[in-house]
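Handout, section 4.2: multi-component inputs.
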Amino acid sequence: MIEAVGLTKRYGPTLAVDDLSFTVRPGVVTGFLGPNGAGKSTTMRLILGLDRPTSGVVRIDGKTYHELDRPLRTVGALLDAKWVHPNRSAYAHLLWMARSNGLPKRRVQEVLDLVGLTAAAKRRAGAYSLGMSQRLGIASALLGDPQVLLFDEPVNGLDPEGIVWIRTFMQSLAAQGRTVLVSSHLLSEMAVTAEELVVIGRGRLITQCTTAEFIERSSAATVFVRSPQLSKLEPALAEKGFTVETDGEGLKVSGASTEEVGDVAAAVGAVVHELTAKRASLEQAFMALTEDAVEYQTGHDVVTEGA
Amino acid sequence: MALLAVERIKLFSTRSPWWCMLLALGLTLGFTGLIVANAGGVFVLSVATTQVAYNFGLMVIMVMAALAITTEYRFGTIRATFQAVPKRTAVLVSKTVVVALLAGVVGEIIAFGCWGLSRLIKPDASLAIQTADDWRNVAGVGLVYVVGAILALGVGLLIRQTAGAVAVILVWSLLVESLVGLIPTVGVKIQAWLPFNVASHFLHGDQQLVAGGQGASGIHYQMGVWVSMLYFAGVAVALLAAGIVAANVRDA
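Output:
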């Protein structure tokens, strides 16, 4: 269980995290979602006591990070897979971490086996591929068999195989009853990984809810109908109070279900060639919500596809 | 004790400390060998002259000490460390103990190595270590390396970047402290209080060594040899303390 209360972090003139409060429950993967620069990594550093909050507090199972005795046994984190000396072997890296928290040497071997790095353990970490570095990062997070796990953008830059591996791994950790917080700027990734979401933008909490709720709430439904008799159909739909927009050979009807549009078409005797429910893509939904919360706006409108 | 083991594992699981130690040993022994082999005539060989090259090793050992902390910032391992052990002061004190101990051991090996090498090259010279001054000349080198390492760690903690920290350490100890003497009248008076000059005073006392070498610069030291050592150590510990305070206050 992670509890942030009024967490605020200011770096000079920039407010990186602004009065952020949220809770992360055990047993499910919680996604920490926000655009780049929203303050996700800063929040994670605050949780780990690496940065000092300007105000507010974050507690792990009721204790601040500094109050934890042998913290690796309580919290495991992968914030940056590159936090390894490039000339040190994975084994030596894990060994000093284990030693610092009074963990036995055999635990190093166990986590190396767990992430499949045993064969490469004696090689220098600087020569690792991104996927291997990420595995080493996960191995160090799991070293103390912690109940709370933090992962910052763990799938960034990974190949599909690596992405699936990490995703399944995080879900299995949550299924064991652990608290798992994983950050991402990709809603589509979170949609398949996380059950709960903490969404932030510009350091502020936008919402905390389940992933299903978030997608449901934020994606407005439209119905696309294609017909050779648009001239009959269009006024009939408008009369019913739907917002109608011409789109090539068809119409985009907002705020309607396929049933309603079908009924109208039958009533006016219009031939229907296509009738599809379209949801806004997750990315669009996400952008709609975080629109005013993006730190670096591009100059022009983003061109988006219909679905 | 666990923290000492952690820092020991960290230090010896990369290659740079090994290279630094080899380089320190090779440079100092090599230079001493050249000096001693060419000694004679007006150049009197004494126990003190077997140690005139101690600065070479000291520079390399200070670079090693600075690297021990700046590479942690460079590669982010300092964050991994503070994540594993949030008590930053304990971590940094442990690191200092490990690095300073190593510097001391290397310093003694270098000092007695140089002395032994000199005896081998010039078996007829009177190089027996007899007086307290002789002992301080030789064994004192290890102490100077210990303090030098602490000072370098302090600078490394404050500056955090390898290039900056190494530049400050080398320019300060090699250039600034001797160039200050160029300032008319007050220059030499200031020099008597600069830590690396004072460290050399601790080793050599008021003995006249090689012309142009340490101790022959016309500086009149105000402190006795052991007070000089304490002064040098005081400066180093103050810098380290400032570095540890900074590490506690600043974000990692």
